[in-house]
Amino acid sequence: MRIHELKRRLREAGAGPIHEHRILRLWSHALPRNSGKRRPESFFPSSLLAALPSIEAELAGLARIHAVHPGADGSERLLVALADGQTVESVLLPRDGLCISSQVGCAVGCQFCMTGREGLLRQLGSAEIIAQVALARLRRPVRKVVFMGMGEPAHNLDNVMEAIDLLGTAGNIGHKNLVFSTVGDPRVFERLHQGSVRPALALSLHTTKAELRRKLLPRAPNMTPEELVTASDRYARATGYPIQYQWTLLEGVNDGEEEIEGIVRLLSGRYGVLNMIPFNAVDGVAFSRPSWERCEQIARTLRQRGILTKLRYSAGQDVDGGCGQLRARAAEVQVPLRRAEDWR
Ligand code: SF4
């Protein structure tokens, strides 16, 4: 189901804007109909009251938690089952954050990502995206939502933008606490500017070398790192939210001195922060993580050269936490073994 279809059904059942807003707020916060001071019987028109049980049952049936994997760092990885039996991953992050999925599978095919190995299986509807937030809110408060789970949000733009609009209004998430994470796509840079809810932007850069990026992210749109950073920077200055440049550190692939020089050249004077995330081991993928000392050395050098750099571990690594790994393990997805040197 999509949010605009849900709204149409509510209107057809007699809902006015305040009724619609209340229903969307209760749903996205996982609250029961009778929460709050106003009794549903006196607040909603009778025609809407009659239609609500079946609508609520449909919303509740969109997704359920299939498995929970708590991490030592306070994160919780959720394997979420959709109505058709497909599964996606959501991650409850420390400090009230939630990472959600926008697609089942992904067409970009990043060579270091388990989700990318499966290809795209289907899009998530906007209501299924909100359902992940509602499920998470049954477990913990959620004040930040990042679209960094399975899928490329740019490839499901209508549904993702519809979900962002709801989360930034009835869902009560601050706009800068909604993070659209993308490999970069001309449609994204056009569309994000137009929304009434404008999220923060994370750009998966991973290398400053155009040719290497084409190999590592084989089906990402053909924009050079320079073009991506220029378009991202324009958005950051328009919104006032710094760009989060994402960089998965792969030993011997993008952790060398040339890349450090490339980053300094590309990001100096840009409004953003560079998040370096040492690669999280994936079975069947021959990349490896640089030593922690090397990661620290890279981050230190970049800071000394004036680049705001943060070194992060991805949440829940101790529970097979890389994007798509829970799903792959549950489904026993087979992936071909590739040699890391193919990508150098
Ligand atoms: S890293 Fe993100 S964009 Fe790349 S294949 Fe995985 S899910 Fe898709």
Can you describe this structure in just a few lines?
This protein has 344 residues and is an alpha/beta fold. 38% of the residues lie in helices and 18% in strands. The structure holds iron/sulfur cluster.
Write structural notes for this entry.
The protein has 344 residues and is of the alpha/beta class. 38% of the residues lie in helices and 18% in strands. The protein has 13 helices and twelve strands. The chain has a ten-stranded mixed sheet. Strands 5-6 form a two-stranded antiparallel sheet. Strand 8 (178-182), helix 8 (186-194) and strand 9 form a beta-alpha-beta unit. The longest helix is centred in the N-terminal third of the chain and has 15 residues, at 46-60. It is elongated, with a radius of gyration of 21 Å. The model is unreliable at 331-344 (pLDDT under 50). The chain binds iron/sulfur cluster. Iron/sulfur cluster binds at residues 106, 108-110, 113, 115-116, 150-152, 183, 323.
Contiguous uncertain segments of 5+ residues: 331-344
Report the span from N to C terminus. Answer: 43 Å
Characterize the main sheet.
Answer: 10 strands, mixed
Structural class: alpha/beta
The count of β-strands is 12
Helix content: 25-40%
In the sheet with the most strands, the strands line up as 1-2-3-4-7-8-9-10-11-12
Overall outline? elongated
Q: In percent, how much strand structure appears in the residues?
A: 15-25%
The gyration radius over C-alpha positions equals: 21 Å
The helix count comes to: 13
N to C succession of SSEs: HHHHEEEEEHEHEHEHEHHEHEHEH
Q: What value does the average pLDDT take?
A: 90
What small ligands are held by the chains?
A: iron/sulfur cluster
